[in-house]
Write a structure and sequence with these properties.
3% of the residues are buried. The protein has one domain. The two termini are 25 Å apart. By secondary structure, it is mostly beta strands. Strands 1-2-3-4-5-6-7 form a 7-stranded antiparallel sheet. 5% of the residues lie in helices and 66% in strands.
């Protein structure tokens, strides 16, 4: 996928005048769904992620995921008003369970774990 960011097109996504690329690969291995996703471009830092979901019973799945962020920016303002910027690589993890009832209601319970620097940016 090509995702442009210009003055009047997707300008809330990130740095303006940037062209971004993203892709997703979907695989099915036995009863496990596997997704691999990646994004890079001028508007945001590069990132790659993977998730998989194993079907345990007819109505339940157990999704898991991981995402890696490259050159994530962190800006800090000190007590004198000086702005400093640092870059770091980060990762986040997801673990959960989904249950589908007979009446097609889905219950989702999940947790996400982020590195402290990345969680502060959200």
């Amino acid at each position: 996928m090509v995702f442009p960011v210009y003055n009047d097109v997707n300008d809330d996504f990130g740095t303006v005048k940037g062209l971004n690329f993203a892709g997703k690969l979907y695989l099915l291995l036995y009863d496990t769904d596997i997704d691999v996703m990646a994004m890079t471009g001028k508007s945001r830092t590069s990132r790659v992620g993977m998730d998989f979901s194993k079907k345990h019973y007819h109505q339940s799945r157990n999704p898991r995921g991981v995402c890696f962020y490259h050159n994530q920016k962190n800006r800090v303002i000190d007590s004198q008003g000086n702005i400093s910027e640092s870059k770091f690589d980060a990762e986040s993890y997801l673990l959960g369970i989904r249950y589908l009832t007979a009446s097609d209601t889905t219950f989702i319970l999940s947790t996400i774990e982020m590195e402290p620097d990345l969680a502060a940016l959200k």
